[in-house]
Amino acid sequence: MSAGLIPQALATPIGGVPPQSGLTPIELALLVAAAFGVFLIRRALRERFLKRPPKD
Q1: What distances in angstroms separate CA 28 from CA 23, 41, 43, 45, 48, one per listed residue?
Q2: 11 near 4, Cβ under 8 Å?
């Protein structure tokens, strides 16, 4: 669906304020939390598989 087919009244949010460009603080916090979670899981898996002796 083309953006030209949507009337301007329907394209704006209910509050009438257009969305911000850039990261909001909550988006930045979610990004940091996700990166920290990935770091913890990778570290745990690395420790788990290093303890196991290699199979022949």
Answers
A1: 6, 20, 23, 26, 30
A2: no
| DSSP conformation letters of 1-56 | --GGGS-HHHHS-TTSPPPPSS--HHHHHHHHHHHHHHHHHHHHHHHHHHHSPPP-
Mean pLDDT by 10 residues, the chain (56 residues): 59 65 89 97 90 70
Length in residues, the chain:
56
The two tokens of residue 4 are 């030209």
At residue 53, the pLDDT reads 72
Residue 3 contacts by C-beta under 8 Å, 6 or more apart in sequence? 11
